[in-house]
Amino acid sequence: MTQASRELDVRPILRSGGEPFSAIMQAVNGLGAGQALRLLATFEPVPLYTVLGKKGFDHAAREIGDGDWEVLFTPQAQAASAQPAPNGVAASGWPEPVRQLDNRDLDPPEPMVRTLAAVEELQPGEVLCALLCREPVFLLPELGKRGFEWLGAFEADRTTYKLLIRKGAQPEAAQ
Amino acid sequence: MFGASLSRWTMSYFTAALCALLCAEALMAAGVGFPSQPLVAPLTLVLVHLVAIGWLSLLMSGALIQFVPVLVAKPLAHPELPVVALALLLTGLGSLLLGFLGMAGFSVGSMPWLPLGAIGLAGGFALNLWNLGRTLWSARPVGLPARFVAAGLLSLVGVVMLGMIFSLTLGGWTTNAAFLRLTSEGIPFHAALGLGGWLTFTAMGVSYRLLAMFMLAPEAEHRSSRIAFLTGTMAILVILIGGPVCLLIFGQGVIPPLLAALAGALVSLALYGQDIMRLYRTRKRPKIELNARVFAWALGSLGLAVLLLVAVAALGPTDRQIGGVVFLFAFGWLTALGLAKLYKIVAFLTWLECYGMLLGKRPTPRVQDLVDEPRAMPWFWLYFTGVGAASLAMFLGAPLVFRGAAFAMLIATARISFELVLTRNLAAVPRAMLPGGHRAWPRLHLPIL
Prior knowledge:
The complex is a heterodimer.
Chain A: E1 6-9, H1 11-15, H2 21-29, E2 37-41, H3 46-54, E3 57-65, E4 68-75, H4 89-92, E5 99-102, H5 110-119, E6 127-132, H6 139-145, E7 148-154, E8 161-167
Parallel strand pairs in A: 1-2, 5-6
Antiparallel strand pairs in A: 2-4, 3-4, 6-8, 7-8
Chain B: H1 10-29, H2 42-72, H3 81-103, H4 113-138, H5 144-170, H6 177-185, H7 187-215, H8 223-248, H9 255-281, H10 290-315, H11 319-355, H12 373-396, H13 399-424
Helix pairs in contact in B: 1-2, 1-13, 2-3, 2-4, 2-7, 2-11, 3-4, 4-5, 5-6, 5-7, 5-8, 7-8, 7-9, 8-9, 9-10, 10-11, 11-12, 11-13, 12-13
């Protein structure tokens, strides 16, 4: 089952001022079942943990000198789906939300404003649940920039988008 | 699932596009091109390409660079490529216009402007096509709005290829018999693919998502939308493949493929109109904002243009009638749609750019606080009045009336552009609400990040 991990060194891309995200996603999509990805970067790629976490990868990071980092992304044993739904959260160990927001009937971009205001009040580790009427494409990068983790998907009726947001233990690390 | 962020170069595309529109309207007011001159005069070509490429295509490209990632919730494949494309498109357009001016007898030097223009434009469009195509491809399976955009991009491939053939032939770089035949007879294909396939079909796809988003209407995919997509795509393919085959292999004229495509396009547009009316009816947002109101007027112009097109096709078209229909299509529908959406999009992007990082951390203005709709509305009225009068003047063959109406459009467009500048400058935001506490004149019309 376990294969040798694949290595991706994005340091040249980063040093030349480029954006390695698409290269990383290509590498992740090209991984075999159970295969891990060894990523080399010039900084600790914290926002990536959220993204790949949602794709079913655990991470282990270590600094390898000169400010460079090596991160090993290993597939979780239970990672059956690359598009986790909110109901999969219990399995990933997130606590019950401390607060619910129903933003479905608000004029855009009020749902984004209200959600960001509410998540600022979360304590580390706490989870907030927001209901929206569409996928909040502009909110998600903003959450990533602020170091929040999130899980989101449409409910079965395809009209309500349920978004769970967790404040990480060290939100400043994302900066 | 990754979300979308601001596109760094979209505002530059919008600025270049608005400059081209203002130039074109000034030329029309000055009596350049049809109806003061013949429909096929080189100066009419200058005007047509300034509008079709400089204004509409740059506007659409800038909007797609921002909104294709929103449609498919994936980041743009190559975020820095659009600036290279913009440079190529602008130099290509400049060369093309010089080429047409040369054809009109102006002294423009001995450079092969037309072929150079075609190469620049093809290069610029190809880069954007590659970028947007890869972004769409990476997000498969994509929803219906994104499939409309994909079909529109396919149409753009056809427009660019035909344009290349015309330019190389007119520039004297080739004497290939098939190219000569296409150049002498294929202009209706070029125009139909450009205005219908690339600009209209793409705008239809984007509007399904944006209108629903801005008006809080449910986004369910209906059967009518799927049929609108299929019939519209068929119309594009009929012209793209059937047109040249009919012309070059079967030796037929351009009429059979054009009529077949028109039939498909009529079904597609009728169903699209029905879908949009459903969006308006099922919206949760009670107040219709300026952009949605102007969009409704633009849609009315599209309906009128289509009815006139059918009437003109049935009666046997004259230059005046073709000019009138194309004018109503380009200015009553596409330009009005573009100005209305710019009014909303510029405010939204500016708001997100200036306040994104501050949201939730301190009080911020709403998007609506960046604009003054009651102040802008009369200028949109003036614009539509100008378009109505100018279309009528074209049908009736009254060039002087047309020039007056074009001047009214120019004034209205200039004022709407000024409103956009004020929005970008956060002019309506009270000092206490400014992002840094002071009125920094942000990177307004250049790269926004």
